[in-house]
Design goal:
Elements (H helix, E strand, L loop, with lengths): L1 H10 L2 H8 L10 H28 L5 H34 L3
Length: 101
């Protein structure tokens, strides 16, 4: 089980790896909002690259079809992850609203 968790940690982005190994915030660490903004910017960049690759495929200007397919796949996966993060955030917000004081 520990080996499986270590392997999961290997595929995490470097920012999340650092956060999981150093849970105590220091003055240099950025908050959740900064990490989320960076992830959104990265997803946007991947989406733009995928759109360009799709246009290149449609116009026949693609140099490497395999790389274009990989770019589109990365953008799709990134968008799915962002949608799940959004869904979890909305769910957490609704749960907080239901909490009675």
């Amino acid at each position: 089980m520990a080996d499986l968790l270590n392997k999961v940690g290997e595929i995490l982005p470097k920012e999340l790896q650092a956060a999981s190994t150093n849970p105590v915030p220091t003055g240099d660490d950025k908050g959740f909002a900064d990490l989320l903004q960076k992830s959104l910017n990265q997803t946007n960049t991947l989406q733009q690259n995928a759109e360009k690759a799709a246009v290149d495929i449609a116009t026949g200007q693609v140099k490497d079809l395999h790389q274009a397919a990989i770019a589109i796949g990365k953008a799709e996966t990134s968008m799915k992850l962002m949608l799940e993060v959004r869904n979890k955030a909305v769910s957490a917000y609704k749960e907080i609203l239901r909490t009675q004081l």
